[in-house]
Amino acid sequence: MKKVLLLVLCLSLVLVGGCWDVLVVEELALAFAIGIDHDVNNPRRFILSMTNPTFSETSQSDTRKILTESYSLSNAFFNLQRQRERILVLGQITSIVFSEEAARSGLLHNIMRQVDQQRDMNPNVHLLIVRGHKAQDVIFMKPEENARVAVYLDKVMNTNFTAGEAPRISASRYWVSYSTAGIDPVIPVIELTGPGEEEKKTDGVIITGLAALDYTGRMQGFLNDKQTYYFMLFTGQNHRSRMTTRLDIDGQVRDTSFYVKDVSLKVKPALENGRPRLALKMALEVDVINIEWDVDVEQEGVDEIIETALARDFQGNALEVIRLTQDWGTDIVGLGQHMRIKYPRWFKDERWRQEYRNAHITLEVKVKVRRVGTLIRPQY
């Protein structure tokens, strides 16, 4: 019986398949982040920047910086492979950085179409737009927190998403927004920080807002960090993040900080003489952290006064965001989806893109203060 068992085991070794396509990490050119810039000498061509870890004890640097010019993404990767003595691997890319010029010209959208065709590209890769610099400046920077730029960018985006400072925008989310009738995509915008010295151009990045893209995939406008907060309230992407503002109470400006604990938005679409009308109602529950106001917190009516002032402040700032998107022709809040659901025959992508600019939009805000933290005595 033992001989039979031994014979079966020996035969099984012949039939069991081995690992025929094993790749040793030290022999790979791993790509973790790429940058896309326009070629100033040829508008039809772009410049792709990339860094690869060297994995070599004899290397003079822990990363290899590479630039290549190309007309297509697949050809760019082919050119990159020809510069490396190792196999180029794309599945570990976590961030794609575009210059603002690339975003405004439509190059970003063109590249995203090609990214979608790369079967080994991560669909959850972060998308970023850099203002004031080239994308390659971000890819080649030297952040103090982490020597590897891609790891640093990934942590910055994830930390800010967790803290409620920025929405999570990936390649897959970009395509969902772009492909859904009645909503346009957004992409986080970053700027470089640092001393600006030649040997060390930057030591990090800061998220400064959101880029609003239209139905053609071109960047049309920019929301700053405060306006981004209201966009996140509209779209239900807000987390428990701290917000500061200045409230007009009793004719005095009161510096106030608070948390929005909960928010709900109701949209009532209508057509009046062929013109779309959207009545928005937003209800918020707020924890006031501190407010600069010399008043007794137990005094009757204090909460109501703060609620009224906050509601007025929210209404003005939120409507400003809506007006900006109308001027740009970018329905990033997704109000068109409500028109599409109620008026499917009237709604058409092409029609809504024109009608949104002139749509009549109103906003009613109701704020409920759950608790008040600290009343700070103002210094006069």
Q: What does this entry show, briefly?
A:
This protein is α/β, with parallel strands linked by helices. Helix content is 32%, strand content 34%.
Structural class based on helices, strands and sheet pairing: alpha/beta
What is the average per-residue confidence, as pLDDT, rounded to a whole number?
84
Strand content: 25-35%
Strands across the major sheet, in which order?
4-3-2-6-7-8-9-10
Cα gyration radius (Å):
26 Å
Number of strands: 14
Number of separate domains: 2
Counting DSSP H or I runs of 4 or more residues, the number of helices is 11
Please give the oligomerization state of what you see: single chain
Measure the end-to-end span.
Answer: 98 Å
User: How helical, in percent, are the residues?
Assistant: 25-40%
Largest β sheet strand count, sense and barrel closure: 8 strands, mixed
Q: Segments where pLDDT lies below 50 for 5+ residues?
A: 22-26
Shape: globular
Write down the secondary-structure element order. HEEEEHEEHHEHHHEEEHEEEHHHE
Write a structural description.
This protein is an alpha/beta fold. Helix content is 32%, strand content 34%. It contains eleven helices and 14 strands. Helix 8 (225-234) crosses helix 9 (302-328). The longest helix has 27 residues, at 302-328. The model is unreliable at 22-26 (pLDDT under 50).
